[in-house]
Design a protein that fits this description.
The chain is mainly beta. The protein is 3% helix and 34% strand. The strands form 10 sheets. Strands 24-32-31-26-29-28 form a 6-stranded mixed β-sheet, with no helix packed on it. It has a 4-stranded antiparallel β-sheet with strand order 1-2-3-11, with no helix packed on it. Strand 19 and strand 20 (294-298) form a beta hairpin.
């Protein structure tokens, strides 16, 4: 569970514009209760059905009648009723969909218990099973992320309740362009205004990485932690909501962006948020950075800590669903061969950029990121050049027609035993229809 994965060097990437789960807040005033059985979340523009699938909205009393139904995410014997294929025609709209994990989690209110949701906005919310999200569990494609609104915890499962949403998808993939390197072992997240220590408590920032062993604390001890880092002394333990803003659900072991947080451990990390409900005063929330799940534990248990400073802000994103007609949609994938590799052995990274959009992408580039502490660059494909003081290899592709793809390679010699996580970025001159998949990632082990 608490395995170590070594990170690549941190680099600022070009701007990628997308709503982010860090914008999501949970304040009753940010929700508008409509008269048609829907609820609007104003910061994101998302519109939710007040009732769960299987229930009926009763407008006279503003409540939900009947029992919520559970569904298999993908039932080979009943494809029509598989959640993956479900649609809804409600309140005069037909573009309802199942929310992703970040969107679904935005409804959780940890100040409440059984259910952990505003009952006026979402009446008769069932707590017996988990609510399915459209987010696939990274470590097994057979499962989906889901949330239990009894206690607010999440897990992975193949069946559960369904609540529909509509509006522009809110991404929960960490975008590198949203982080600024402060040059002192800290980064600032523009989406939230928070500044984070790049190393977990116990580790030491040195030469672009985090060295040393992570220290574990009881939650009562972790609450007292502070530091003098970057000339600031107001460092503290993050809240549940704050810590979730740096979880990268597209990765696992660790579920963190290892460019922003190098040498990030796959450990449990304490938050400062106490569990609500009678009899739970001795419990607090933590986030599992092996897979990104969040649950609670007794405060006397010992877990890791990462410190933060500042106040969390949120921004309002457009509620207009972006059009994909005539757009550019670049997707990047990355593989390593051999994997695992041996020390002093040549490893080849192969990256493919595909334009899944309907318009030509102009000025397309594909950028590999090099970790000099762990690998030595030797060669790359034609049209690729080592830049940024040896920290990146930029491949000039030019125009990439709709439906076309190009593959480029980079050869390195592995110099250090352990695990290495690497990434590649595709971009063009156009605004991308789905920028979340412009980054490709892979991890490989290095043996003696």
């Amino acid at each position: 569970m608490k395995t170590k994965l070594t990170a690549i060097a941190f680099l600022l990437l070009p701007t990628i514009s997308t709503p982010t789960f860090a914008d999501l807040t949970l304040t009753a005033g940010e929700f508008v209760q409509n008269t048609d059985g829907t609820v609007t979340h104003t910061p994101t523009g998302l519109i939710w059905q007040a009732c769960s699938a299987g229930q009926t909205f009763e407008p006279s009393f503003g409540t939900c009648l009947g029992e919520a139904k559970t569904f298999q995410w993908q039932d080979d014997n009943d494809e029509k009723n598989s959640a993956i294929n479900m649609t809804s025609d409600f309140a005069g709209q037909t573009d309802w969909r199942i929310p992703n994990l970040a969107e679904l989690r935005s409804l959780v209110d940890l100040k409440k218990y059984q259910p952990t949701v505003n009952k006026s906005l979402f009446p008769q919310t069932p707590t017996g099973n988990y609510f399915l999200s459209s987010s696939t569990y990274t470590q097994s494609s057979s499962y989906q992320w889901a949330i239990n609104f009894g206690q607010g915890i999440d897990t992975y499962t193949s069946y559960g309740y369904v609540r529909f949403v509509r509006g522009a998808t809110v991404s929960f993939v960490i975008s590198l362009k949203d982080f600024s390197d402060n040059g002192d072992g800290t980064v600032t997240h523009s989406k939230t205004g928070l500044t984070w220590q790049r190393c977990a408590v116990g580790q030491t920032w040195n030469d672009g990485g985090c060295e040393g062993k992570v220290t574990e604390y009881k939650q009562t001890e972790a609450l007292k932690l502070t530091a003098n880092t970057g000339g600031k002394t107001d460092w503290r333990l993050p809240t549940y909501k704050e810590l979730l803003t740096i979880v990268d659900y597209s990765a696992h072991s660790p579920a963190a962006n290892v460019v922003v947080f190098p040498d990030a451990p796959s450990d449990y990390f304490w938050t400062s948020t106490q569990v609500a409900g009678d009899g739970y005063n001795s419990y607090a929330w933590y986030v599992n950075f092996d897979n990104g799940s969040a649950t609670y534990d007794g405060k006397t248990a010992t877990h890791a800590a990462r410190l933060v400073r500042g106040s969390m802000t949120s921004s309002t994103s457009s509620s207009t669903t972006p059009t994909t007609s005539g757009s550019v949609d670049l997707t990047a994938t990355l593989t390593a061969n051999p994997s695992p590799a041996k020390i002093n052995q040549t490893l080849t990274y192969s990256a493919t950029v595909t334009n899944k959009g309907k318009a030509t992408a102009t000025g397309t580039t594909l950028t590999f990121y090099v970790a000099p502490k762990f690998m030595s660059y030797t060669a790359s494909s034609n049209g690729c050049e080592l830049k940024n003081n040896g920290l990146s290899v930029v491949c000039q592709i030019g125009d990439l027609a709709a439906g076309a793809n190009v593959t480029k390679t980079m050869n390195v010699i592995m110099q250090k035993v352990g695990g290495v996580s690497s990434s590649v970025l595709a971009k063009s001159n156009e605004t991308d229809a789905n920028p979340a998949d412009n980054i490709g990632r892979t991890a490989t082990g290095v043996r003696k």
